[in-house]
Design a protein that fits this description.
Blueprint lengths: L3 E3 L6 E3 L5 E3 L5 E2 L26 E3 L1
Antiparallel strand pairs: 1-2, 3-4, 3-5
């Protein structure tokens, strides 16, 4: 059974079965199309989390 969850960057709702990139420290979650676009205090995209100082985005 899959549920819909939203991307923390664009807000698009996708299935939990979708490929997600999730921070290993704070749980910030982005869809694949937002991996290079998410921006914040700590990063401006890519595999470094933009919401916390030490997190890395891991494919889930």
């Amino acid at each position: 059974m899959s549920y819909l969850i939203h991307c923390h960057h664009c807000g698009k709702e996708l299935s939990t079965n979708w490929t997600w990139f999730v921070c290993d420290k704070c749980g910030f979650r982005v869809c694949p199309s937002c991996l290079s676009k998410h921006k914040g205090q700590y990063s401006s995209g890519g595999f470094k989390c933009s919401k916390c100082a030490f997190g890395q985005m891991k494919q889930e």
